[in-house]
Amino acid sequence: DAGVTQSPTHLIKTRGQQVTLRCSPKSGHDTVSWYQQALGQGPQFIFQYYEEEERQRGNFPDRFSGHQFPNYSSELNVNALLLGDSALYLCASSLEQHGYTFGSGTRLTVV
Amino acid sequence: KNEVEQSPQNLTAQEGEFITINCSYSVGISALHWLQQHPGGGIVSLFMLSSGKKKHGRLIATINIQEKHSSLHITASHPRDSAVYICAVRQHADKLIFGTGTRLQVFP
User: Fold this and answer.
1) Contact (CB<8Å) B95/A42
2) What pLDDT was estimated at residue B66?
3) Which residue of A75, B3, B61, B106 is most buried, as measured by CB atoms within 10 A?
4) Is B67 a residue whose pLDDT tops 70?
5) Would you state the pLDDT for residue A82?
6) Rounded Cα distance, A47 and A57, in Å
7) A45 contacts in chain B (CB < 8 Å)
8) Above 60 in pLDDT, residue A1?
9) Number of H helices, E strands in chain B
């Protein structure tokens, strides 16, 4: 039973570019949450998707957007990349009030 | 002030020692999670608690809802326990708020 799969594992982008990160949830999970973790910090909530809609959003600008597909997989898009967007992006899937399963993350470096 | 505070931030121990990591929170929660993060970045969920105490192997987690405090204990610590341990609280709106983590190093 595969857990949460994220791709790519590492990515280097230039300031101003756009990036798309992908997440496949654990089998049976219907909710996907995205988190940004800067070096030495705890993860910060970006947004959560359920039934293909954004259900909640953290304090992130509109440059951060997402999507959830009918098979529950999800994408995180970031436009007009800034140096400060360099971080580990974590995806977590869940089902109702059960526990979360986290992916290994995508490490994004903006140069 | 962060909504979730952990202490200590860094912890070193000799193999075999008993370890305690503390977490205090200031918001209403539906559950509290203890997570383990290794240097590669991947996060493993250790416990989800809404009351009382849970035990898994050498790990024990407790929570006091009235005092808004939780502890993670590791008995007979081992170098493979070296990792960052993160406390995260789940609000009623199903959002996780994370602490900044406790970096544990266990030396042989």
Assistant:
1) no
2) 94
3) B61
4) yes
5) 97
6) 4
7) 95-97
8) no
9) 0, 11
